[in-house]
């Protein structure tokens, strides 16, 4: 049995959709069934409730599980959540954990790195030392980040406001990552390996705004804001101060040209996955970018 955690989240729910698309059995760990409406109708998906921070709740989820794709939120006690889960999985007899990590992890502990990437690195090391078979999947920024939402894409002002100056990023479509995750969970030979993923183009924010404009027929303008303005906008949108600080670190790192700015399609090639371009992604999701429908 394969278990996917974080199945109600942005990436987890699209990975569960990939299982449904392939008509493949999967168990989905959710904290609350009420949040799982979008995935509970798929016939090959078994929903099980449990909390990764509370091993005593994970018995049914881990029963007879051979492989896990481990995802949890970046915001919420990620190190503790995933280390606790690794221990519980090992005790329950799981053989192999594929850690859903982040691009930049694995390049060496560096205090200048975005704190979430540092946590991913710590979890990767914990998993590697656990005695379980491991694989790290490290996507760059998701293309889904550019969907309307505070504080970046604003459909009232038709602006994309980010502190990126003219620096470039190569975001990846989660759908591509989901195809790779599916393949990793259904084939052999990936133990002890790490797979970095980006999208196929390194784009400036002005180019991303232009591609969204072309797909939607609305003119979206890129507005280069300062890091402090970005922080204030996050706080105004309700982000806790620590989260706002973390994002300032992230964008400061990104605009300095971090590893997410360089295209790396090696993993797409290994798994035979077509790299979705931002233009394709924007076209397929034009209604979401216009605020006319919700992301799937
Ligand atoms: N955003 C990006 O551009 C990006 C790029 C590369 C990598 N990543 C990494 O990808 C990972 C997932 O990101 P995401 O955006 O998909 O996250 P997300 O939307 O916040 O989803 C997180 C999922 O984890 C679940 N979860 C959290 N704590 C849990 C616990 N204690 N027990 C059980 N389930 C728990 C959440 O359940 P509830 O629904 O109950 O909250 C939710 O289903 C993160 O580690 C992030 O660092 C993100």
Automatic annotation (TrEMBL):
Pfam families, from UniProt? NmrA
Under InterPro entries, the record lists: Ergot_Alk_Oxidoreductase, NAD(P)-bd_dom_sf, NmrA-like
The source's domain of life comes to Bacteria
- Residue span(s) of domain NmrA-like: 2-281
Gene3D superfamilies, from UniProt? NAD(P)-binding Rossmann-like Domain, UDP-galactose 4-epimerase, domain 1
Task: Check the record and name the SUPFAM superfamilies matching this protein.
Answer: NAD(P)-binding Rossmann-fold domains
Q: What is the protein's given name?
A: NmrA family protein
Its taxonomic path starts at: Bacteria, Bacillati, Chloroflexota, Ktedonobacteria, Ktedonobacterales
């Amino acid at each position: 049995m394969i278990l996917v955690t974080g199945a109600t989240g942005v990436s987890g729910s699209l990975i569960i959709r990939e299982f449904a698309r392939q008509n493949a059995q999967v168990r989905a760990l959710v904290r609350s069934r009420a949040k799982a409406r979008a995935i509970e109708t798929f016939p090959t998906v078994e929903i099980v409730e449990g909390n990764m921070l509370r091993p005593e709740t994970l018995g049914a989820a881990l029963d007879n599980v051979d492989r896990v794709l481990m995802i949890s939120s970046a915001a919420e006690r990620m190190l503790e959540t995933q280390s606790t889960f690794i221990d519980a999985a090992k005790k329950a007899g799981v053989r192999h954990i594929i850690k859903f990590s982040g691009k930049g992890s694995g390049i060496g502990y560096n205090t200048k790195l975005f704190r979430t990437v540092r946590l991913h690195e710590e979890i990767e090391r914990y998993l590697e030392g656990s005695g379980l078979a491991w694989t790290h999947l490290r996507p760059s920024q998701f293309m889904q980040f550019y969907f309307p939402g505070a504080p970046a894409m604003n459909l009232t002002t038709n602006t994309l406001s980010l502190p990126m100056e003219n620096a470039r990023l190569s975001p990846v479509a989660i759908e591509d990552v989901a195809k790779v995750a599916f393949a990793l969970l259904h084939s052999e030979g990936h133990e002890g390996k790490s797979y970095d993923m980006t999208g196929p183009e390194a784009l400036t924010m002005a180019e991303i705004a232009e591609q969204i404009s072309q797909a939607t027929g609305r003119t979206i303008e890129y507005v280069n804001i300062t890091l402090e303005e970005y922080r204030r906008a996050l706080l105004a949108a309700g982000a806790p101060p620590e989260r706002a600080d973390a994002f300032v670190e992230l964008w400061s790192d990104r605009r300095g040209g971090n590893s997410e700015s360089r295209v790396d399609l090696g993993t797409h090639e290994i798994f035979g996955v077509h790299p979705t371009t931002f233009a394709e992604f924007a076209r397929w999701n034009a209604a979401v970018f216009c605020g006319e429908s919700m992301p799937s």
